[in-house]
Amino acid sequence: MSMKQDVSTIRTSPEGTSEPSVALALGGGGARGLAHIHVIEAFDELGIRPVAIAGSSIGAIMGAGMAAGLSGAEIREHALATVGHRREVVNRLWQLRPASWSEAMSNGFRFGQFNIERVLKAFLPEAIPASFSELAIPLKIVVTDYYGQTEHVCETGDLRKALAASAALPAVFMPVKIHDRVMIDGGIYNPIPFDHLRGVAEIVVGVDVVGGPDGDGKTIPSRIDSLFGASQLMMQSIIAMKLKEGAPDILLRPDIGRYRVMDFLRAKEILAATSGLKDQFKRTLEARMRTDDAAS
Predict the structure, then answer these.
(1) What is the pLDDT of residue 171?
(2) Radius of gyration (Cα) for the chain, nearest Å?
(3) Mean pLDDT throughout 257-274?
(4) 225 near 178, Cβ under 8 Å?
(5) In angstroms, what CA-CA distances link 224 with 24, 219, 229, 230, 275?
(6) Distance CA 265, CA 83 (A)
């Protein structure tokens, strides 16, 4: 696990505040994004609330939970009881089955693809509201405009549709339409949307859970592994270019490379393997905040 701090530019707190403000960017990575829970728990334990959150894909979902007022412990409990529990996953997916062929066709059925809006409706915590306006913390959700070949940031309107679009992993989930535009996984265009938080807070924290192909360097990957691995390589190249333009003040990179994007049933294992992230982040954030306080 590694962390990167960019302390070349120390910004002072706004007048009248007791400590530097913090904004949080949570990245995409499928099941690997369960590691975001440790970061949310760290904020809870430090008694710090981000002034803004930005997220892509699984990061958008985790960010929505935090922005809705859920604690890290509550998000952890919900994840382990739903996506981390095989029987519960089967039961919830079974309830999503179309009652008839006509219903399947009317819902835009495509062989090999799931309707992500229906999946999220079955799995999201009830505490996550329908609209951005009901959130306690401002949230920016990044989605990818498929035909526009660019990113789109959702900040108002239908929250759950924005979450579905940001998590619409190609070849697994059907695209989602927003304002009559075809949208897919936000992580494809912006894996860690920390750039959308520049100037919003004194300290910007980014969490990278993209990972990379894991193995012995000799074994030929399966077709599915090579597909997702190529996607990881693409996203890491995007992250590298973004970091050259300007890194977040704290960049967290938990060691999650050995987990696949759809390894949600290994939720307990992923959380255990990345447990050290919480205390390491707490120490890093506290040190950075002391530095900013001293500078002001």
Answers:
(1) 84
(2) 19
(3) 95
(4) no
(5) 31, 14, 8, 10, 28
(6) 6
The tens digit of pLDDT for each residue in 65-120 reads 999 999 999 999 999 999 999 999 988 887 776 544 454 444 544 444 789 999 99
Q: What is the 3-state secondary structure (H, E, C) of the chain?
A: CEEEECCCCCCCCCCCCCCCCEEEEECCCHHHHHHHHHHHHHHHHHCCCCCEEEEECHHHHHHHHHHCCCCHHHHHHHHHHCCCCHHHHHHHHHHCCCCCHHHHHHCCCECCEECHHHHHHHHCCCCCCCEHHHCCCCEEEEEEECCCCEEEEECCCEHHHHHHHHCCCCCCECCEEECCEEEECHHHCCCCCHHHHCCCCCEEEEECCCCCCCCCCCCCCCHHHHHHHHHHHHHHHHHHHHHHHCCCCEEEECCCCCCCCCCHHHHHHHHHHCCHHHHHHHHHHHHHHHHHHHHC
Q: What is the pTM of this model?
A: 0.88
Q: What is the pLDDT of residue 97?
A: 65
The rounded mean pLDDT for the chain is 89
Exposure string of 203-214, with b = 16+ CB inside 10 Å and e = fewer, is: bbbbbbbbbeeb
Q: Which two tokens stand for residue 59?
A: 């990061």
Calpha distance 279→262 (Å, rounded): 26
Dihedral of the CA atoms 142, 166, 269, 256 (nearest 10)?
-50
Check residues 67 and 293 and name the one with the higher pLDDT: 67
Q: Which residue has the tokens 């193995």?
A: 215
pLDDT, tens digit, for every residue of 213-234?
Answer: 888 889 998 888 888 888 899 9
